[in-house]
Amino acid sequence: MPEKEQYASIADSSKPNAGRIYDFLLGGNHNFEVDRLAAQQVLQFAPFLPKLLKAIRWFLGESVRRVAADGFTQFIDFASGLPTIDHIHQVAPSGTKVIYSDIDPVTVAYGQEILKDNADTRYVVCDAGKPEDLLNAPVVSQLFEKSRRVAIGFSGIAWFVSDDQVGHAMKVLYEWAEKGSCLFLSDSGFEGDYVSPALQGTLDIYAKIGQPMTFRSLNTLKELIRPWKLKEPGFRPLEEWLGMKAEVAEETQKASATTFQGAILEK
Amino acid sequence: MSRVADLLKRKEQTLIDSLNSCLRETAFENRYSLHPRRLAELGAEQARAFLDSLEAPGRTDAFAYGQKLALEGIGEKTMLLVASNIQRFCRTDLGSDIELLNQVLDAADAFSSRLQDGFMKAREAQILTDQEQLRRALSTALQNQGEELLIKNHAINTSINGILLADLDGKVTWVNASFLQMWGFASADEAIGAPIGDFWVGEDARDIVQVLPRTGGWHGELSARRKDGTAFSVELSASLIRNEEGGAIGLMTSIVDITEGKRLQAQILQAQKMDAMGQLAGGIAHDFNNLLTAISGYLQLLLINAPLGTQIHQDLMQIKAAVDRGTGLTQQLRLFTRQATGMSQIVLLNEIAQETYEIFHRTFPPEIVIELSLAPSAWTIEADPNQMSQVLVNLCVNARDAMMGVKDRSPGGTLTIATTNVELSDEQAGRYVNARPGHYVVLRVSDTGTGMPSELLERMFIPFVTTKGEQSGTGLGLAVVYGIVASHHGFIDVKSVVGEGTTFEIFLPRTERKDVERHGKAATPTLPQGRGRILVVDDEPQVREVISRILTASGYVVILAENGREALSRFAESGGIDLVLLDMIMPDMGGRECLARLRKVDPNARVLIATGYTSDGSAQELLREGALAIVEKPLDLQALTERIGGILDGASAR
């Protein structure tokens, strides 16, 4: 999902939108011709992207199932997109309280429409780089009452947010959350010493549509997530979390010296 | 078929393994909503559904199952591969029995076909749902954008600032309602399409338009030109309108009319200037008063001894006339500085206006038409009627002079005297520096004379500023008007156009007090000679000396003191002081403190206050604190002795 101030709204059909390109690459129908054209350009550089994005989405579902099994009944999710199917409230047990958020007000308005009959969910506007806006909003105390033991979703968004913003968000969330809370995130694990043409091409396209991406090394990411602690098994390639063969990891590694990783953190 | 089903069911696990393998291979062909961990269950589910359909064709609803798979997110390619795997499985296990194989393949085809039908039906529905979702998202966005645009539109259209949009060539493309009001246009059509420079005085606006592409913005004051050609001052902010790519697509200006602000600022400066002037003039009037008191006193002494009809008597009378003129000037200065005594009473301005009209109607040149327009139910004010009369006289005389004997102008015109009641709101009062909201009676004097240029308007209330020749005026007329009006808590609004005339509006606060003692004046008994001990307290030696001589000549015993402290000593030493004549302003204990102490020593002490400052309230307070009366400087010594005689005589009579 796009997480910058200079973004095109999900409902602006005149310009490519990162969220809708994401949707197209996932095989969805919430996209326009302009997005599909942009997506085709992206695929020329990064043909592995559809698989990668699905893996990221599956990691989110996997994480929710795991932390729900650990007894978490309150979730906050950043850059949620449209909560149509297989999102947190559908994966977690009934009665689980979920606050979704997205930077695009139209996405939020539409998400609210989808969730209007679900008393255990809320959807608010928030920039993932500034989680304090959500944490200080009345909706949090209204839905969660006094408990701040939460599971936080930061999956598939970190690569759309600068290092400073990721560091800031992690600290703010850590300070706010109650001890015992957890956070699941997935991000790039860039390991090369140069940016391949494939990666550069992808970065250029996203920068052009007003949604620059940041590919960071795993070490940098580990610094940024402090003071959260890694839960076992730590950062692992996404397929490992899903019990699949390392198909995506091999393709991304080959094309961009990157292995996308997921982890569950705890306070 | 049940036999075949039994046969194949025995190999069910083989089919499940085959399907699981196929599903794993095609995991990424499915939608993201189908989680990989679900795939392991799906292989068994599909195998069972197929085998059940062989066993009891009606038991499994392949169409519904196909729909379910579509909703779960299984991909089309996966569906085809699954169907292909089932066929392969059948062939492998029944390949030797062609008839049986054909039956099974027909059944498998039928199953797969229904499955596909259900799947495709659900997919179509899904696409339609997604498109509907997208349509609703677009609709929501458009609605939000529409509302946002509407708010922005209202904001810009109803802004109290004038807003003007122009294209890059400087042609007006849009203006808001405030702009139309400021410039006096009836509709936007009158402004749209016109060059932006048409709305301004001079070339400044055109220059700004030219530099904007370079500077990006401009802020400052400009002189604007209304539709009727009149000019007004505005504060203008101009900026380029840029599109999302940063390219300039037009100009926007935001305009604030600062005419009123500038006028108020000028009023404040004027009020400050007048205050400073008043303080200066007040000091001069005070010193001048003391000098005149001394001169006048000695003159009166000399006149007593100068035989009537002699040359010396005539010369002294000339001096007296000059002193009287000086006293008159001082009196006017004191009016300007608000030092003069006022006999405050309930006044109906209509009566004063009527009296003034009667006088000038007879005495002004016939070329001047005097019109009187009085409010039928004019409110009353609390004022000194003589001073109000003086205000009106001064204004009328000025009006006459502006209409008569002016070079290059035919004599005559119309002088209008009018009264009206007005109620000033907060906003209206805010236009004047010294005004408060409330009810006022307005006295308006307007003429059709020469008018005053702005530089004269700024200075007209300053003492000795005059446009008349030395023989015609003192330059104190308007200064006196100013002082009197200010001392009555009123204010003045002046409008003047050169060649057209001038209008003075005097705003005086309405009083709620009832009409009592409108013209009461107590007669003072005359008693040139008297007896008693009088303590004269004044810091001016000449004043002390002349009063002493007059009072001594009138039969009184006079004791002198030059300040309050000495007066207290003298009062205590002398014993039996019948009256204290006490100056107000003295170094080393002034009159007020001295009075308080005297009254403390002797609560029955009779004290007469002599002062030039009588209307600032302090002298009036002394009356409340026990002083018998106030006599104004410069002293009329004859009147003084009569006043003292009256007091002491009244006292002895009791």
Give the neighbour order of strands across the main sheet of chain B.
Answer: 2-1-5-4-3
Uncertain segments of chain B: 516-527
Beta-strand percentage range of chain B? 15-25%
What can be said about the biggest beta sheet of chain B?
5 strands, antiparallel
**Separation of the first and last Cα atoms of chain A:** 26 Å
Find the structural class of chain A using helix and strand composition.
Answer: alpha/beta
Describe this structure as you would to a colleague.
- The complex is a heterodimer of chains A (267) and B (654).
- With 267 residues, chain A is of the alpha/beta class.
- Helices cover 43% and strands 13% of the residues of chain A.
- Chain A is built from 12 helices and 8 strands.
- Chain A has helices at 18-25, 33-45, 49-69, 88-91, 105-114, 132-135, 138-144, 163-176, 197-208, 218-224, 238-242, 247-256; strands at 74-77, 97-102, 121-125, 151-155, 182-187, 229-230, 236-237, 261-266.
- In chain A, strands 1, 2, 3, 4, 5, 6, 7 and 8 form an 8-stranded mixed beta sheet that branches.
- In chain A, α5 links the parallel β2 and β3.
- In chain A, α1 (18-25) crosses α2.
- Chain A starts with 17 loop residues before the first helix and ends with a strand.
- Residues 1-7 of chain A have low confidence and may be disordered.
- With 654 residues, chain B is of the alpha/beta class.
- Chain B contains 20 helices and 17 strands.
- In chain B, strands 2-1-5-4-3 form a 5-stranded antiparallel beta sheet.
- In chain B, α1 packs antiparallel against α3 (36-55), α2 (12-25) runs antiparallel to α5 and α9 (259-305) runs antiparallel to α10 (311-336).
- Classes of the chains: A alpha/beta (267), B alpha/beta (654).
- The interface between A and B is medium-sized, with 33 and 24 residues.
